[in-house]
Amino acid sequence: MANEKKFDIVIVGGGSAGAVLANRLSERRTRSVLLIEAGPAYASGDYPDIIANADRVGGDDHHDWGYHTQDHLGLGHDIKAIRGKVLGGSSGVNAAVAMRARPVDFSNWSKHGLEGWSFEDVLPIYKAMENTPTGEDAWHGRSGPFPIRQRTMEENTPSMRAFVLAAEACGLPRVSDFNGSEQHGVSPYPLNVVGGNRINTGMAYLTEDVRARSNLTIRGGVEADRVIFDNHRAVGVRLASGEIIEAAQVILSAGAYGSPAILMRSGVGPAFHLNELDIPVIVDAAVGQRLKEHPFYYNVYALRPEVNSMTPAAGAIVWTRSSEAGDNELDLHISGTHIFDPADSPTGGAIVLACSVTQPKSVGTIRLSSRDPRAMPLIRFNFFQDKSDLRRMIEAVKLSRKIAATAPFCDLLASEMLPGSAVRDDAALEKAIIAQVDGYSHPTSSVPMGGPEDPDAVVDSRGKVRGVDGLHVVDASIMPDIVSAPTNVTTIMMAEAIARKL
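The structure assignment produced for this chain is given below.
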């Protein structure tokens, strides 16, 4: 059944990118915009505590897609692939870390033949989107819709403050502003948290005033099946319910798992895979072939009972380089949080030093399990497929343990819970890392951007899908390669940048 109204633009997915696009593209009041979101579309001031409370991370079953990877053959276990199913998307369930990508990350993008995505190009867009009261004017915006607040040492827990001081004692410099000129070192986080609330894009960009625009329609609880084409032009979207929505232009912002799945169900993807599922091929494209994710390993310590405060949950981070880092790269994180169930600690309190390789070389994939729009896609991270990633993760955990053995931090710790004191040599540590590795919830690059000479590029520098008209993809899936920072702020910036060109 066709919709009575044909929209100028339909945006599929109201997450970190989709909410931004809905705001910006509906600023032109002569243009009708429909935003569809699979999860609940809460009013901007009416999000439940599981989404709004910054100390509650990861959402719940009602606000998550319930995905997991198919990595058991390589790693011995699958990995939860958490993605927010709510207006605001994963910006509603993440740790609210608001750190930009670095200049070298964008230099890596330029190797794919892209123009317009240098750090010099994007810095003004980062600044325009943010409002932050601290830092230097050269690096920061004061009046954008997205709030970024620098957490102070005083706001952190005693153990988190001690983690920062011990990292300094190990030779890591204190960073005053990760979104400023220097990132190498340790500091409390910058966060999109105000008054304890995680400010997701559904709050920041889809305010009540924006939602009141007569040319913007938002529908929650709506799942997309596929894009409808007339020859090679996108003309609408078919929903999982069977409803048809007609549109002059379709934008997929369903995330690094959702957007490639919709594309493949629509006939845009690897021909060999689409043929397996009897999906007519419209464009033979390398969709789902270059998935990237940051591997994440939890080095966990029980806190002494007298210092077992765990609020606020997100605290501080080390950003440094491994012995194998490229020029100007910072390829290791040690992220200090209290995102841990205190009931699982023998002392009732714990601190997690979560180690990550932020410039991984291993490449994952996304495939369809069937043509059913409600079927979970087949996701494989393929962590440690490239042995460099494993070697660098071992370096990160060794540094994490060194910090934990250093005063004043060591004085606040009761015991190491993971990997545990029995794990001492490299062989045992490697085994523990492989057995327990998780994902940082930063999936990217499954529908990558690239220049005309990049054979694996699915979209151009503006997110337009090659080989068809009227179809764009704008979300973390189009990053040509994963960045060395948490991905959310950069995803929002990309939506801001592309919205200016649509």
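Interim note for the steering committee: The radius of gyration is 22 Å. The chain has a mean pLDDT of 97.
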